[in-house]
């Protein structure tokens, strides 16, 4: 009876060995699983919405070359952070990587001239390999089980240019091309779910996750959430500005806008 259910009761996503040695209750691991899956789903949707909007507008909100950093992150931690027997964890990271590749491909082909394609692909490949090398080097500087220390810090730092860059592009261009509120809400909630994974770990086993609760951790988190929080208000402003531009052109008051 319930043989299959019993065989899966000990299967959880990225359980930290130091946590397991403390014999945590099942609820701790289940909530951690929920937060990890929520984060994965939100960012997968975010990549999808980015791809759709970039293709529709023929405009990329920022440079796709930055994606070599996230692709390096996803490939590297698919290898070192997942347990050897956990295929689901590894495939989860690889799905993220595949979505990045799709987005980058659409962005390059839709928003840039053909003459630039080869150079951009070359930069992305070299950047991804170099990024994996940097992550490996950081893991040797701050060794940790499954390299969670470097995964945490590099993860929250990589989000900073994305959050601020999206806001700055709105202001500079005065339009919403390449961006949408669907992208923002999945990215915004994705930040909270990603932070939530580590904060859930910290409040339950602070001795294993002390680096989550310090000045620089709070600084990076708040520095990231500030542009994300005001983003929808700036988005509405940019949307109004773009409609005014289209209205002026439609009325023939200016020939170029």
From TrEMBL:
TM segment ranges: 28-50, 62-79, 91-113, 120-139, 151-171, 183-203, 215-238
Matching Pfam families: Pyr4-TMTC
Entry's localization field: Membrane
Main location: membrane
Single GO MF annotation: lyase activity
UniProt protein name: Uncharacterized protein
Organism: Karstenula rhodostoma CBS 690.94
GO cellular component: membrane
InterPro entries found in the cross-reference section: PaxB-like (IPR039020)
Membrane topology (UniProt): Multi-pass membrane protein
Stated family: Belongs to the paxB family.
UniProt keyword terms in alphabetical order: Membrane, Transmembrane, Transmembrane helix
């Amino acid at each position: 009876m319930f043989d299959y259910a019993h065989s899966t009761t000990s299967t959880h996503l990225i359980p930290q060995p130091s946590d397991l040695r403390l014999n945590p209750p099942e609820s701790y691991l289940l909530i951690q699983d929920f937060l990890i899956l929520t984060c994965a789903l939100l960012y997968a949707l975010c990549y999808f919405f980015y791809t759709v909007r970039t293709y529709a507008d023929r405009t990329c909100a920022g440079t796709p070359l930055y994606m070599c950093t996230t692709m390096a992150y996803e490939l590297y931690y698919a290898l070192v952070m997942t347990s050897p027997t956990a295929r689901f964890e590894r495939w989860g990271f690889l799905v993220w990587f595949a979505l990045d590749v799709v987005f980058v491909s659409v962005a390059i082909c839709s928003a840039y001239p053909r003459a630039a394609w080869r150079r951009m692909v070359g930069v992305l490949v070299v950047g991804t390999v170099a990024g994996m090398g940097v992550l490996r080097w950081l893991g040797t500087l701050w060794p940790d089980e499954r390299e969670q220390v470097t995964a945490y810090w590099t993860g929250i730092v990589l989000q900073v240019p994305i959050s601020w860059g999206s806001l700055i592009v709105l202001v500079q261009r005065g339009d919403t091309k390449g961006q949408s509120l669907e992208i923002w809400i999945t990215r915004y909630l994705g930040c909270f779910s990603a932070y939530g994974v580590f904060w859930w770990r910290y409040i339950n086993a602070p001795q294993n996750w002390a680096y989550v609760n310090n000045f620089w951790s709070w600084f990076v988190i708040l520095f990231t959430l500030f542009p994300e929080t005001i983003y929808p208000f700036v988005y509405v402003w940019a949307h109004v500005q773009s409609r005014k531009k289209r209205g002026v052109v439609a009325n023939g008051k200016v020939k170029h806008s």
